[in-house]
């Protein structure tokens, strides 16, 4: 239908319906149900016809009235245009500008009407074809159908004579165009032109292969380098490990040798020490007898010849007697010292009872010095009875002995429970000890005073140290000259590994 407004309808003798519209005259075939619009163009009064203005004469003529008069025709006399129009592509445009072969670097080698193939770059992204059907009867009613194979799926039909495409991908296409004449007679043989769009270099096969080769090659190079590096590092590491192993083996050998030598030396020392202790014991033990004899004879002489000897002889015998007494006490101390640890069975020791015994033994000395000794309740510990007694006794004797002149000695004994130890403190108000001597006094035969000042042998504190260590503890002193001294020592609460402690103490003594 040329238009949707029908002004009048008439049937001709052959059965076709003729319709006048606001856009010309149309013929409807009721059998085929099709319209034919284009035969009646030459000489019509106007495209616009008037409503109801239609008449069929007895001669079979049809009349339609319109805005400029009327038209009369006999349908039987109307000739149909049977001419099949050839179609040609008459213009090719890039970016809406016509291309001619004469231009420099033109895409066309010859005129567009002769061209069968055009090669374009991917950058030439807007292309237009103009075409025409060579049918000159009412040519504005010629119809066209075109399609770009490779891009369009269906034919695009209409009266327009132009086709534009934009941004085509690289590849090959064929542009085809067909046409019909004004009476809708189609030329089925399409005119075609091949379009080749070259891709950008990064989409070309050679570039893709090259890029792939570069990527693969680069990866291979990187991997090979990495492997080489790792191999080199591995070799360096292996060398280092080898060197370290050799060093380790060497040092282990040296260490073993040193340990073996030390063990041998230790054994040697232990042997020597045992011998020495035995010697000290035997010597001091055997010395007791002749000493006792000397002492008792001197005593006898002093008693029997009293008044018969001159004054000098009396004085000499007194010296002999004093020297023998001192020697007796020295020998007794040495014997005690060498006997420590002989008894290896630990027992429960009530420190309160021990202290009572010691205070009873030292009763005379305490009274003579007018000493005050106070203590808190002491614990029951696992230890060696005699040794603990000796320890308490030595510390108390020292506290009384090293008192300040004209001051009554005061001793405070306290104890505190630590995590694994008891810590005992024997604090006095005596003469005190210089800082530089605080370690030294625990070494055997180390004394800070001569005998005329204070009696002693220098064994007492070394004896105490040995006893404390036998009980898995430590001994130290906090003191200052004139400020008194506080002797601290610890005793293990749990004596689980007695033999180990004993061995350690013995080792320390050996060293
Ligand atoms: P000593 O037989 O001389 O008492 P010790 O081994 O018992 O030997 O003591 C070593 C030295 O430590 C003593 O000579 C003394 O100088 C010092 N000393 C020990 N106890 C005390 C104390 N409570 N106050 C001051 N000095 C002390």
What would your notes on this structure say?
By secondary structure, this protein is an alpha+beta fold. It is 37% helix and 27% strand. The chain has helices spanning 205-304, 311-339, 351-361, 363-369, 385-401, 460-470, 498-510; strands at residues 6-11, 17-21, 24-29, 34-36, 49-56, 62-66, 69-73, 87-94, 97-98, 117-121, 126-133, 143-149, 156-158, 162-166, 171-180, 186-198, 347-350, 372-375, 380-383, 410-417, 421-428, 475-479, 485-492. The strands form 6 sheets. The chain has a 5-stranded mixed beta sheet with strand order 10-16-15-12-13, with no helix packed on it. The protein has a 5-stranded mixed beta sheet with strand order 18-20-21-23-22. Helix 5 (385-401) runs antiparallel to helix 6 (460-470). The longest helix is centred in the middle third of the chain and has 100 residues, at 205-304. The two termini are 129 Å apart. Residues 495-499 have low confidence and may be disordered. It binds adenosine-5'-diphosphate (ADP). Adenosine-5'-diphosphate binds next to helix 5 and helix 6.
């Amino acid at each position: 239908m040329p238009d949707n407004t029908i002004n009048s309808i008439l049937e001709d003798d052959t059965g076709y319906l003729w319709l006048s519209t606001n856009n010309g005259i149309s013929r409807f075939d009721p059998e085929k149900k099709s319209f034919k619009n284009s035969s009646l163009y030459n000489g019509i009064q106007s495209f616009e016809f008037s409503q109801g203005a239609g008449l069929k004469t007895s001669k079979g003529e049809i009349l339609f009235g319109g805005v400029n008069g009327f038209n009369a025709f006999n349908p039987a006399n109307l000739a149909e245009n049977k001419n099949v129009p050839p179609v040609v592509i008459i213009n090719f445009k890039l970016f809406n500008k016509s291309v001619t072969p004469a231009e420099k670097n033109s895409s066309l080698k010859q005129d567009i009407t002769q061209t069968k193939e055009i090669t374009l770059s991917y950058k030439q992204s807007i292309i237009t074809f103009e075409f025409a059907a060579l049918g000159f009867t009412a040519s504005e009613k010629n119809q066209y159908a075109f399609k770009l194979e490779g891009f369009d799926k269906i034919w695009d039909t209409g009266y327009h004579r132009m086709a534009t495409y934009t941004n085509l991908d690289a590849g090959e296409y064929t542009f085809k165009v067909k046409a019909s004449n004004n009476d809708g007679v189609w030329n089925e043989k399409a005119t075609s032109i091949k379009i080749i769009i070259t891709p950008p270099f990064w989409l070309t096969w050679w570039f893709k292969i090259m890029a792939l080769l570069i990527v693969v090659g680069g990866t291979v190079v990187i991997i090979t380098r990495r492997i080489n590096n790792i191999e080199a590092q591995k070799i360096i590491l292996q060398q280092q490990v080898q060197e370290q192993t050799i060093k380790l083996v060497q040092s282990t050998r040296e260490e073993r040798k040193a340990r073996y030598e030390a063990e041998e030396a230790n054994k040697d020392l232990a042997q020597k020490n045992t011998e020495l202790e035995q010697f000290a014991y035997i010597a001091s033990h055997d010395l007791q007898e002749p000493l006792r004899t000397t002492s008792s004879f001197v005593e006898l002489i002093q008693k029997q010849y009293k008044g018969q000897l001159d004054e000098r002889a009396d004085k000499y015998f007194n010296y002999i007697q004093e020297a023998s007494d001192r020697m007796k006490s020295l020998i007794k101390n040495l014997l005690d010292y060498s006997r420590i640890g002989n008894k290896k069975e630990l027992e429960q020791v009530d420190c309160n009872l021990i202290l009572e015994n010691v205070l009873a033994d030292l009763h005379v000395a305490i009274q003579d010095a007018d000493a005050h000794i106070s203590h808190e309740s002491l614990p029951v510990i696992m230890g060696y009875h005699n040794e603990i007694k000796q320890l308490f006794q030595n510390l108390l004797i020292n506290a009384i002995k090293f008192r300040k002149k004209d001051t009554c000695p005061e001793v405070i004994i306290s104890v505190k429970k630590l995590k694994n130890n008891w810590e005992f403190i024997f604090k006095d108000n005596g003469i005190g000890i210089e800082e530089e001597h605080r370690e030294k006094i625990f070494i055997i035969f180390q004394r800070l005073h001569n005998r005329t000042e204070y009696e002693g042998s220098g064994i007492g504190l070394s004896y105490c140290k040995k006893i404390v260590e036998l009980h898995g503890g430590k001994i130290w002193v906090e003191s200052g000259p004139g400020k008194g001294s506080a002797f601290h020592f610890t005793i293990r609460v749990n004596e689980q590994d007695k033999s180990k402690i004993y061995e350690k103490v013995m080792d320390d003594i050996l060293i």
